[in-house]
Recover the amino acids of this structure.
């Protein structure tokens, strides 16, 4: 009897020995489970990043197999380049202005959506719509709406009398208007997510705190600026951090709407890197342009995280 | 300090009547407790008095003035919330100074006031800390200091002790009671804990299903309950309620004792009691059992002090228990309200 049991047990053990080596061993299984993610990140993020770093210090182009290190020569050349300076300025301007508009609008929308009113469901759906639409299709839609001849926006504004009969702005054809158009479309696109984040931040403030402030005699603006916004600050900072990184590294809107024009007035660093490195084949300069923002964005990230930690609430 | 009055105040959430026509008048400097099970409408009533909730109908008066449609800040009230609702991003100093700042007081006056209220509650050493660095008891004091600092006409307290552990709660109860007597501010205190209500209230309003069932002094609501709900809600274990003829007969477990313990009194109601189970709780012995034929063998509880040692109670034995006749209360079997006694 006793021997029978042992036989069964040993058979079972030998049959599952290979599998149990993987599944019962935390170290092996852990490594095995995390491996796909690590490989994915290394292959698709790490490897290109290292490659970009190497390229930015070299003279590599698409057209030849020649490769030699040139040190900081690319960077020095870029700093002297007028177009580069414009693109850098545009990047900062585009990011800052659209982030401020998004923040203010998202905050207002979130405050509205927090209240109960008729038709709230429809408003909420409409606000979230841009987020669920494929972005390239959405931007193509905007391209048509901002068309220099057939713009329905101009048509509408002219027929409602807001624009005079001879006033027909070329949204994408004039430097200042083009930047405004880019910012508008970007705000349209970022607003849904920012609103949802703000709404989450607002609802995370306990009702008791709002009530206490009311009883303590605080008016609307005192509550907004001394209670609501400070308590939402950590979550707002996270939203701003992602917003900045996302806005500064995005290319799709510019690629579809203006291709950086007119006269480079909407060219940002990422689009310039794309046109220089991929379209024009100057891989080295393209890589240097793209990486120029790397230390800047890293600094932004560290700064934001530090503030977020300091403002952390109980 | 002015009195608080509600006149037919009601709050309906759709079909649900959270508060259903409540008339209460608190007298000056009184500690009035709103007591009731969860969902009875006591917090909603308090929030309406605070101005945080609009009543569906009725009026609220503070110091004789109708304040029904005034915002909270114009009512001269201060409130302490169950969660204390301290502002987590501000220091304790800023928390206490917040209402003063909203009043537009100068920095100099603010400092003086904060000092005064912090000293009163013994939290001067905590002023530079943040709420998250404080213990539950300290947070409660900060909440009280913040309420006190404006020198309100009325204090509204919403279960301020329920977040404290049992041991701290007893001392906090004592402190809170003293504090209220010291500052002599009319206080309305919401709780579901009958011990807090009995121990602190000058008067208790027992609420159920949006209505005030009884308003009276603690010993009044305890010994002369207005209906079967109050009788069953107060006391632990609650009043024994048994049916006979067209009445519900009620008597407290601690009045339901062996004949020997009532030897002096002659006017007693004799009730044969068949013991089913005995629980020894330390100070008390709870004896569960059934009455005789007259009450249809209804289940009742007797509460014997453990100090009464020379009386053995065995299970499945019948004993001669008695209740003094003036401790027997009668209720109408249909309405549950107090009714004329019937001969038993």
């Amino acid at each position: 009897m006793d021997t029978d049991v042992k036989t069964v047990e040993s058979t079972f053990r030998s049959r599952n020995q290979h599998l149990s080596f993987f599944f019962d061993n935390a170290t092996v299984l852990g490594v095995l489970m995390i491996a796909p993610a690590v490989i994915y990140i290394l292959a698709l993020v790490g490897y290109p990043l290292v490659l970009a770093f190497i390229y930015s210090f070299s003279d590599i182009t698409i057209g030849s197999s020649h490769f030699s290190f040139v040190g900081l020569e690319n960077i020095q050349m870029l700093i002297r380049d007028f177009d580069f300076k414009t693109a850098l300025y545009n990047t900062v301007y585009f990011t800052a202005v659209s982030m401020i508009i998004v923040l203010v609008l998202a905050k207002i929308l979130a405050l509205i959506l927090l209240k109960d009113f008729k038709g709230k469901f429809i408003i909420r759906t409409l606000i979230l719509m841009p987020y669920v639409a494929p972005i390239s299709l959405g931007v193509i839609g905007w391209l048509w709406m901002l068309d220099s001849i057939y713009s329905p926006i101009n048509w509408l504004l002219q027929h409602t009398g807001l624009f005079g009969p001879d006033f027909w702005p070329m949204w994408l054809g004039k430097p200042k208007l083009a930047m405004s158009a880019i910012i508008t479309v970007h705000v349209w696109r970022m607003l849904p997510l920012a609103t949802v984040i703000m709404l989450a931040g607002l609802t995370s403030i306990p009702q008791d705190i709002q009530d206490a402030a009311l009883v303590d005699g605080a008016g609307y603006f005192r509550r907004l600026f001394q209670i609501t916004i400070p308590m939402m600050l950590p979550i707002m900072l996270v939203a701003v951090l992602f917003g900045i990184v996302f806005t500064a590294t995005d290319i799709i809107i510019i690629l579809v709407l203006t291709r950086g024009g007119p006269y480079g007035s909407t060219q940002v660093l990422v689009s310039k890197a794309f046109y220089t490195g991929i379209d024009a084949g100057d891989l080295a300069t393209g890589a240097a342009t793209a990486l120029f923002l790397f230390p800047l964005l890293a600094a932004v990230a560290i700064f934001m995280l530090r503030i977020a930690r300091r403002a952390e609430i109980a | 300090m002015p009195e608080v009055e509600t006149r037919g105040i009601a709050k309906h959430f759709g079909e649900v009547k959270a508060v259903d026509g409540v008339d209460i008048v608190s007298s000056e400097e009184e500690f009035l407790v709103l007591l009731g099970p969860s969902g009875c409408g006591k917090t909603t009533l308090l929030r309406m008095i605070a101005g945080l909730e609009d009543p569906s109908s009725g009026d609220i008066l503070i110091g004789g003035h109708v304040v029904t449609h005034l915002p909270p800040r114009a009512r001269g009230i201060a409130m302490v919330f169950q969660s204390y609702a301290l502002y987590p991003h501000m220091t304790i100093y800023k928390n206490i100074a917040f209402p003063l700042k909203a009043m537009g007081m100068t920095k100099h006056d603010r400092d003086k006031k904060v000092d005064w209220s912090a000293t009163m509650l013994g939290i001067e050493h905590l002023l530079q800390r943040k709420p998250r660095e404080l213990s539950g008891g300290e947070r409660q004091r900060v909440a009280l200091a913040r309420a006190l600092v404006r020198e309100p006409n009325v204090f509204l307290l919403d279960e301020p002790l329920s977040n404290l552990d049992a041991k701290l709660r007893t001392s906090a109860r004592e402190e809170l009671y003293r504090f209220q007597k010291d500052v002599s501010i009319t206080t309305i205190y919401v709780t579901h804990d009958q011990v807090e209500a009995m121990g602190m209230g000058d008067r208790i309003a027992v609420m159920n299903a949006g209505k005030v069932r009884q308003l009276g002094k603690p010993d009044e609501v305890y010994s002369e309950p207005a209906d079967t709900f109050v009788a069953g809600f107060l006391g632990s274990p609650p009043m024994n309620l048994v049916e006979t003829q067209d009445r519900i007969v009620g008597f407290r477990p601690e009045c339901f004792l062996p004949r020997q313990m009532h030897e002096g009194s002659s006017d007693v109601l004799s009730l044969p009691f068949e013991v089913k189970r005995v629980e020894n709780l330390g100070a008390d012995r709870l004896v569960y059992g059934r009455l005789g034929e007259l009450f249809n063998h209804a289940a009742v509880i007797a509460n014997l002090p453990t100090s009464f040692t020379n009386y053995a109670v065995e299970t499945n034995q019948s004993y001669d228990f008695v209740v003094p006749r003036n401790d027997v209360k009668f209720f109408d079997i249909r309405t549950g309200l107090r009714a004329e006694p019937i001969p038993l």
About this structure: The first helix of chain A runs from residue 2 to 23. Chain A touches chain B through 21 residues (CB under 8 Å). Chain A has two domains: 4-56, 75-310. Residues 4-56 of chain A form one domain.
